[in-house]
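As a warm-up, study this chain.
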Amino acid sequence: MRLAVAQIISSEDLAANLELIRDNATQAKAAGAELVVFPEAAMRAFGHSLRGIAEPLDGPWAEKVRALASELDIVIVAGMFTPGKDGRVRNTLLVTGPGVDTSYDKVHLFDAFGFAESETVDAGTNPVTFEVSGTVFGLATCYDVRFPALFTANARAGAQVNIVCASWGAGVGKAEQWDLLVRARALDSTTFVVACGQGDPETIGAGPAGTAPTGIGHSAVITPLGSAIAALGGKPELAVVDIDPSVVDEVRAKLPVLANARQF
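Now compare it with the structure written out below.
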């Protein structure tokens, strides 16, 4: 399967962010990709008001992404915000394209490193998987990557690939933690991990928005044995990668961590 990782830097402007999605999805399709992954907060960057722009999955922003996926005949995964409880929003991944229309609400909220996502975001509760051309994908968002159980749950539900969409916070050691975590989650679940982060705003002359996690880049595609087959820097970039999902069965025969696992 050929897929694409679109490391963009989204802004406050919803229309401009849609154009970024259109441009990268068009390039991904031209390169032969069946699926293109965009980061968390592709709809609007963190550091800006979210409640005023949150909309349901059949709202105008999502419908434009849906129409684009249909026009290009490609599956798009992109981070947006939907209405939640008590005036908060849901941090949602929209998945839409040929034969696919689903979503995932971020389960683990980023109340860490001086940022309190739970003040404005309502947590999701359930894992989500979907299928494209016979390959099963699981979904995760940013801080979720620190929690192995979500990735193994997706694997037990049939996922051969786990997608992580992120807007990773900058800071001392954070890039090293991101690299370690995405590789560890591949090993935990014996799945490919497609980790797509917001690019680093510093690379385009825009500084971070206070304590908001606005991205550091370092998107990657990791094999089930923890090796990187694609690894990006901080700048906006589109990476197109071929993966072989049949490798997952081979790895699990050699390294049956899912079968050997015990609950305590």
